[in-house]
Amino acid sequence: MSFGRVNRREFVTHAASAGMALPMLGWMNSAQAALEGKGKGKAGHTRSLILLWMGGGPSTIDLWDLKPGSKNGGEFKPISSTGAGQVSEHLPRMARNMKHMNVIRSYNSRDGAHERGTYINHTAYAPVPTVVHPSIGGVVASRNTPETLDIPGHICLGGAGLSPGFLGTQYAPFRVEAGPNPIPNLKSPVDQDRFARRVAALREEQEMFARQNRGDNPKDHKIIYDKTFKLMGSATLNAFKIDQEPDAVQTKYGKTGFGKNCLLARRLVEIGVPFIEVGFGGWDMHQGIFNALAGTGRGMAGNAGAAATPKLTELDMGFSALVEDLVARGLWASTTVVWMGDFGRTPRINQDGGRDHWPSPWSVVLGGGGMKGGEVVGSTDDDGMTVKDRPVEVSNLFATLYKSLGIEPNTELRSPNGRPIKLTGTFGDGDVVKELF
Predict the structure, then answer these.
(1) CA max distance for the chain
(2) Is 219 left (phi over 0), alpha (psi -120 to 50) or beta?
(3) pTM for this entry
(4) How crowded is residue 372: how many other Cβ atoms within 10 Å of its Cβ?
(5) Separation between Cα atoms, residue 126 and residue 424, nearest integer Å
(6) Exposed, middle or buried, 23 (CB in 10 Å: 0-12/13-18/19+)?
(7) Helical H runs in 130-186?
(8) Half-sphere exposure of 280 (CA within 13 A, CB side)
(9) What are phi and psi of 415, to 5 degrees?
(10) Fewest Cβ atoms closer than 10 Å to its Cβ: which of 29, 60, 226, 272?
(11) Residue 402 in contact with residue 423, Cβ under 8 Å?
């Protein structure tokens, strides 16, 4: 099943022939509304969301809601944190930062299939054949992207990201990876004059298609290319150069893929990008889960030859450094950070020493954006099997995230066939988790 993702190649296909001399291409038309009601509930200044996406389904019972003494408790011990709850012994750096973060321990995401769980936790809706719902990245980009930003407002690091649905391709995820060449194909192999002629020919084609009333695609195509042209040669590109950071900072984040992408996410927030998703996969641990989380071998298919850094150490370093930097730089009140994945994993340990898919209950970690810190919302029973109190549904989580971003949670969009689409979906009552504000 495909949910309409747009990759970097689609974003810069023809821009591969573009050059660095862009003063002559100073145009940048404002994006028009792609949906009814765009602009309502828009934040007064840039407010950003960083989604730390744990693809595969993280075992939250081993990280944020440990059950020592239970038959389901596993091998890890809980340690005290600066917040209201304990965390895994393998997350000592995050334990020191939990005064800034909150844990929802009673989350129900409804579906234990990877693609459906990914879709639900990005859109607040179950997938249906009649409409592709906008992802939260597309919504935030459509609402909170500054007009002066030279790059897309929906950036995904580490291969994550979902479609903006009917909002249009201008809000699609722009996928990059922290490293020496994060955005390839931005330097022209031709001179300025030849490049200008190519742009003029492209503009004629775009205008011809627009005159043929082919819907929003020609308009979106033009907006994307204009943004690409403006990006080329822009000082904004410096944000992607994480090697400009002091070595001590890079070391603090961890010189791993996840750590580098967390560092890049912080740099993108600093220039006003409203939505950054950092993908960190490999959590589908049906066997050998404790070695996979804390051992150097990781014990998972697809990780052969991976760096020796244990998975939880990699998470702990990148996550904690991101939180600490955002707080220290005065960005915490305007930046929301949420940690989650497709679903959680079973409290019961299976015969292969792993945990299987588990959509309820499991834990989501979030903070910043004007929320309180150090709170624990909801609880599970002694074995982690059921919600003990304060159940939190998908709609409650989305309402909370949108509120933290200055976006009215009750906003309704209109699908292409005219149907109202609530930002918070239909799984639950859509109320904000008030304990966090």
Answers:
(1) 73
(2) alpha
(3) 0.84
(4) 12
(5) 12
(6) exposed
(7) 136-144
(8) 26
(9) -75, 165
(10) 29
(11) yes
Give the CB-side neighbour count of residue 163, counting CA atoms within 13 A.
Answer: 16
Q: To 5 degrees, how large is the angle CA 104–CA 110–CA 116?
A: 115
> What whole-number distance in Å separates Cα of residue 242 and Cα of residue 79?
33
Q: For residues 219-242, b (16+ Cβ closer than 10 Å) or e, as one string?
A: bbbbbbbbbbbbbbbbebeebbeb
The Cα–Cα gap between 291 and 307 comes to: 14
Tell me how far apart the terminal alpha carbons of the chain are, to the nearest angstrom.
38
The residue type of 321 is A
Q: 16 φ, ψ to 5°?
A: -60, -20
Tokens of 151: 């790059």
Phi, psi for 5 (deg, rounded to 5): -70, 150
In whole angstroms, how far apart are CA 427 and each of 99, 112, 297, 419?
Answer: 29, 15, 39, 17
Nearest to 101 by CA among 314, 368, 329: 368
Q: What are the φ and ψ backbone dihedral angles of 276, each rounded to 5 degrees?
A: -130, 125
| Pairing of the two strands 101-108 and 362-368 | antiparallel
Residue 261 exposure: Cα atoms within 13 Å on the Cβ side: 24
Q: Report the alpha-carbon distance of residue 31 to residue 272 in Å, rounded.
A: 17
Which residues lie closer than 8 Å to 155 by C-beta, 6 or more apart? Answer: 173, 174, 175, 176, 268, 273, 275, 276, 277
